[in-house]
Amino acid sequence: MSDLQFRGYAINDTAKWTEFEVRDFEPMGERDDTIDIEIKYCGICSSDVHTITGGWGDINTPLVSGHEVGGIVRKVGKGVKGFKVGDRAVVGAQIDSCGKCRQCGDNQENYCPKQVDTYNAEAWDGKITQGGYSTAIRAPERFVFHIPDSLPLEDAAPMACGGLTVFSPMYRFGVKKGMKVGIAGLGGLGHFAVQFAAAMGAEVVVFTHQQDKVEDAKKMGASDVVLTTDKDWNQKYSFALDYLLVTIDVSKALPLTDLTSMLYVNGVCHLCCMPDDPIEAFQTQSLAANGASISVNHVGNKIEAEEMFRLAADKNVRAWKEMIPMSQVGKGVQGVKNNEVRYRYVLKQDLA
Amino acid sequence: MSDLQFRGYAINDTAKWTEFEVRDFEPMGERDDTIDIEIKYCGICSSDVHTITGGWGDINTPLVSGHEVGGIVRKVGKGVKGFKVGDRAVVGAQIDSCGKCRQCGDNQENYCPKQVDTYNAEAWDGKITQGGYSTAIRAPERFVFHIPDSLPLEDAAPMACGGLTVFSPMYRFGVKKGMKVGIAGLGGLGHFAVQFAAAMGAEVVVFTHQQDKVEDAKKMGASDVVLTTDKDWNQKYSFALDYLLVTIDVSKALPLTDLTSMLYVNGVCHLCCMPDDPIEAFQTQSLAANGASISVNHVGNKIEAEEMFRLAADKNVRAWKEMIPMSQVGKGVQGVKNNEVRYRYVLKQDLA
After folding, report:
1. How would you label A39-69 residue by residue, b for 16+ Cβ within 10 Å and e otherwise?
2. Would B308 be classed as within a structural domain?
3. Below-70 pLDDT ranges, chain A
4. pLDDT value at residue B283
């Protein structure tokens, strides 16, 4: 038995989404495949902000959010094969799936119709899942990731959602040397996307409305940066990109047809974002000029997560982060909402 | 010199789009690569109706529409290598491209930014292109297709747009045996799509709101037909399709999220339609459950066109058509608008 306490920073009301209070909670029930992890770090993802502000709908309160969790294994179920007590481990935005459907059998567990979110979802035993702004998390082995020894835990944690969400679609598309890849939006997801696309060998062009991020983008690996506040900003790369990953998380700031106009024939505009409001209505005519596609993903699978961590270790991909004590999570979520963060807040444990 | 007269059935006003009158017109100027074709047949495509009704915007009048043209070569420019006088030949929705850009060099001439539509577009010499409801057409060799001897000209003509528009995206996706392909909408495009998907070896499921088309769909090669008027019609194939080709040409009849819900992980919903109005606004969340894509195309290239005709000849794909005299084109466009056609009107020459 581990003596982990499950205790976290919870909000009670979406109208008061910066007001957190410490509460004990019950994790999902133990199974043969569950692992208990003592949390050291947790990234703040914009999903957390969408959720706690009610932007994605009603939530269960009190709620502990956070799904970019890094920690140390303290207990393993008797069926766990890949982890032992003392291992470093990371958990992302998904905590469970049915394990029986076609998707689960195909290593597409992130598309299981019964997938369980890391927080604000119903676990296998009916409990509401609670996230990583907390002392500890219990997760089935399939949703716990190994990281290479050389990758710092505080960098790996925010990659578990923010990194994987951009890595998985680029990995599936087959981003590689010789391709020209655009990254639109340079926030938490975008800053990982630039680094991973460059690590995969692509020529990377960043599209941002923020002049003060231009130098950062280049340091992250961009070969060019286009300011979307410039007139006709989408002309320079007209018909030029093989792939464009969009991390702009506000519908009205997402100029879909301008973005897709930069794709070469049959290029893909991948929307790595879930704005509160619908994407602008579009006409198929606007995509027909280049036969473009629009695609979407939901995080990634375990194989991709561990590939990502290996690539990060090999190519020195890191979270550009501001570390703050977990007790200052209210300030953190406010900073994400206000787009003040450069580029990810990582909460450091101060409860345990 | 051929003694072809260029004369066609033209409309003068989008408000009077069923009123055609016979007019002489000037084709694009001759070049070394142009071919003059005496027209025998021309299909009526729904694009023609979108255009002449003004649904896609203002047009040049008088206008001869029609871009599913089948005929006999009567003259070839001195640079023409693949055709000789007397050959059968087919022309589709595109009549020219710049020939110099990256797309043209990549056999992606259908995505050339300077592509020229077969009618209502400005040709290389400034003339407005006129379509196939007429006695003759002049086209550069790149936009004139060969057909196998065993394929009737009156079947090949409507395939030049209605067939190619559905063939090209399925060919690029790689539809093949072992795949489950949905076809939504069983009109002019859909009826070709069912036949080609089956000819490529896929298991084909048709989605239609018309009970009276069920038996036809099966004869065309569908293994199952789902009536979209049934309650929960999209449940049976939830997460089941690899590819879904949508030929529903009216935005409000196009239930995008119901359609995409039927795709397996990373499946593609291909919109082979250009409704007058925008597609419904969508949330990325609705595509995230299966990581689906939405794609669009603009007809196909010459290589694909000639592949399509070979497959049609080999696998006995035919236009299910109603032949009408070209002089009855007004009745034809009305029948397309009212969705009365089963499944393609083909105009038979009566002017020459």
Report:
1. bbbbbbbbbbbbbbbebbeebeebbbbbbbb
2. no
3. 1-2
4. 77
For helices B188-199 and B302-315, angle between their N-to-C axes, nearest 10 degrees:
70
Q: What are the chain B neighbours of A266 within 8 Å (beta carbons)?
A: 172, 295
User: Is B306 part of a structural domain of the chain?
Assistant: no
Name the pLDDT band for B352 (thresholds 50, 70, 90): confident
Q: Considering its fold, how many domains does chain B have in total?
A: 2
User: What residues of B are in the A interface, CB distance below 8 Å?
Assistant: 56, 102-103, 106, 108, 110-111, 113, 169, 172, 238-239, 264-266, 268, 271, 273-275, 277-285, 287-298
- The CATH number that applies at residue B212 is 3.40.50.720
Same domain, A167 and A146: no
> In this predicted structure, what is the pLDDT of residue A29?
97
Residue B119: C-alpha distances to residues A74, A156, A216, B13, B91 (Å) = 72, 57, 50, 15, 12
> Is residue A30 a part of any domain in this protein?
yes
A165, A260, A284, A301: best mutation site toward chain B, by most B Cβ within 10 Å?
A284
Structural domain of A254: 162-296
Give residue-wise pLDDT tens across range B309-343: 999 999 999 999 999 999 999 999 999 999 999 99
Judgement on whether residues A136 and A59 belong to the same structural domain of the protein = yes
CA distances from B163 to B67, B216, B326 (A): 12, 17, 21
